[in-house]
Amino acid sequence: MKRLLLFLSADHLHAQVMEKGKILTQRSFTDSPDDRGNFASFLQTVKCPAYLLTDLIEEDFRHETVPHLGGGNRVALLQRKFDQFYRGTPFHQATLLQRQKSGRRDDDMLFSALTNPSLITPWLNIMLAQQTPLAGIYSVPQISAPLVRDHPSSHLLLISWEKSAGLRQTYFSEHRLQISRLTPVHADLTFRDAVVNELARTYQYLKSLSLLPPGQTLDVRILCHRNDRAELESGKQPDNADMRYDFADIADIAAQLRIGYRFTDSDASQIFLHQLAARPPKTHYANATHTHYFTLWRLKRVLNLASGVLFLGMALWSAVEFWQGAGNATEAASLKQQAQRTLNEAQKIVAAFPNTYAPAADMKAGVSVMRKLNQYAPLPHDVLKPVSAALDHHPQIELDDISWKMDATEPVVPPPSGGRPGGGYADVPAQVITIKGHLVDFANNYRAMLNYLERFQDELAKQGFQVTILAKPLDVSPSGSIADKRDANLHALDFSMKISRRPPT
């Protein structure tokens, strides 16, 4: 991934674009209106995350022990400290050095800030105007920590030289950053002379701040080019038994860090820039306003990555669906052939059925007749109940046989009150009941017997029945014959009658 690395000193800004550890482009800008405009034009051609590394004299460090808090309480405590120490600058940070192992187990904190924001703000405003995604604002002392991580000393002073800034001296205790000083180096002063002059001052400065315990030997590691190393080793160092010297060849350091850059002098700027590109620290001096466009850039990157993953997932899903679809197509073809065979067999069976075609009018008439039959088909209870009631009123009639049927051919007789004329047949079947019985307890009183039978007939007629006498116990019609029945069983004179009734249509 491409990165824009910026190295800012008091009056100089160095910019370089890197990708995979290699430098693609380098530009330098001075603190002048023209070069600031050139820097804005340069940013228009570079659309990648930017990392700003500062090497300024105006960087302050303070050690404080604060209560161990969490959440909002910790944020409020740190903000009070920032207001107390660095009210005039927005470029500040707090780094946890360690948590104490005894007592309340408070936190040992290192508060630091870039105390002259006017050196940074003009360049920062240009980056915000160009919507450059700034990842953070860092300082050389922060980037120096990995360079001493493997050193065995617990009290180490790292000396480096940056051509555009000066001589940087950073003190580490137990491999944790404690303090750092930057001294400008004039053109008429050699690297060796600058180291010799400043080393004695820094040692006394550490002693005055009680950062170096009494009697403790200070290890001094000097990062330099092999030519300057030879000059330092041949020259006379400050005569102090409490200091040990260690010379680190800048080319060897670059090889260990896999930095592909050819060093011609002791300028360590590229060491720090490559270190920043490879492993940027988590803490830095920028706030949310400064890193706004970097946050948007990272969100866009995440969304693009999610879109790519989603597209790949959809492509895989489509491939699986295509493969399953091919199998389904084969199965569908087999099912289609089976369905066609079943249809052909069904057509053969239907063709073998007898012809049961009936005209629509006949079917309609049949349906109408069936509906009427269902509507006017009485229950036996409803038909025989009035007959049973009439028999109960005439106990001298004993029933021998009774039959019941529905007969549509029964002639229609008009009711006594008028209505439909007689003759013909009705659409509604008649309820036809045939009764066979005999009269008892009349001795030879034929007149009383016939009157009794007529009263039975009248009661049935009142129930809506049409009564037809089929056989009387005594035939008194002109065509009948009256014979002496004294020898017959006078208590068993037979008769039969037919009663019929149609439901109203």
Walk me through this protein's architecture.
The chain is α+β, with helices and mostly antiparallel strands and 505 residues long. The protein has 3 domains: 2-58 and 116-290, no CATH class; 291-349; 377-501, Threonyl-tRNA Synthetase, Chain A, domain 2 (2-Layer Sandwich), CATH 3.30.980. The protein is built from 12 helices and 17 strands. It has helices at residues 33-45, 71-85, 121-129, 140-144, 191-208, 226-234, 250-256, 269-278, 292-351, 360-376, 380-393, 446-462; strands at residues 2-8, 12-19, 22-30, 50-54, 59-66, 92-99, 107-114, 134-139, 155-162, 166-173, 176-183, 218-224, 243-249, 397-407, 430-439, 466-471, 493-501. The strands form 4 sheets. It has a 5-stranded mixed beta sheet with strand order 3-2-1-4-8, with helices on both faces. Strand 10 (166-173) and strand 11 form a beta hairpin. Residues 417-425 have low confidence and may be disordered.
Structural class label = alpha+beta
Per DSSP, the total helix count is 12
Q: What is the overall pLDDT average?
A: 85
Total strand count, please? 17
Widest sheet: strand order?
3-2-1-4-8
- Terminal CA distance: 100 Å
Radius of gyration: 62 Å
**Strand-and-helix sequence, N→C?**
EEEHEEHEEHEHEEEHEHEHHHHHEEHEE
As residue ranges, the low-confidence spans are: 417-425
Please identify the oligomeric state: single chain
Shape label: rod-shaped
Helix percent band: 25-40%
Whole-number count of domains: 3
